[in-house]
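Q: Make up one entry.
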Amino acid sequence: MQKEQIFEKMNGFLTEDLLMLPGQHVVEDEFAEGKECCLLYEGIYQAERNLCERLGEDENEDVETILNGMESITRILAMKMYEYGKYGCTARAGNQQ
C-alpha cells in the first residue's frame, strides 16, 4: 500500500531505490544524517541514555513503553493524515470537473 511505503521510506526503513510520487516528487528519508528528524531522534536517544544512567540500568521498561507508544501514535497519525490528504485531493478534483 502506498501510504505504508511512504511512511517506511520517510522513517528510514526503506533504504534501497527511490520512491517516486506523481509529478516526479521523491519521498525522502527524514531520518537521514543531518535532517531535522535525525537531530531530534539523537536528542531523544541521549535523553533516554541519561535517564537509564541515572536509574543505574542499561534500559528501562517504562522508557521503552513511552518511546514505543509515541512511535505507534506517530504511525497512526501519519496514516490518517495520508487518508485525509488523499480525500481532500479527490474532493478537489471532483469539484473541478
Remarks:
- The longest strand covers residues 19-21.
- The longest helix spans residues 61-96.
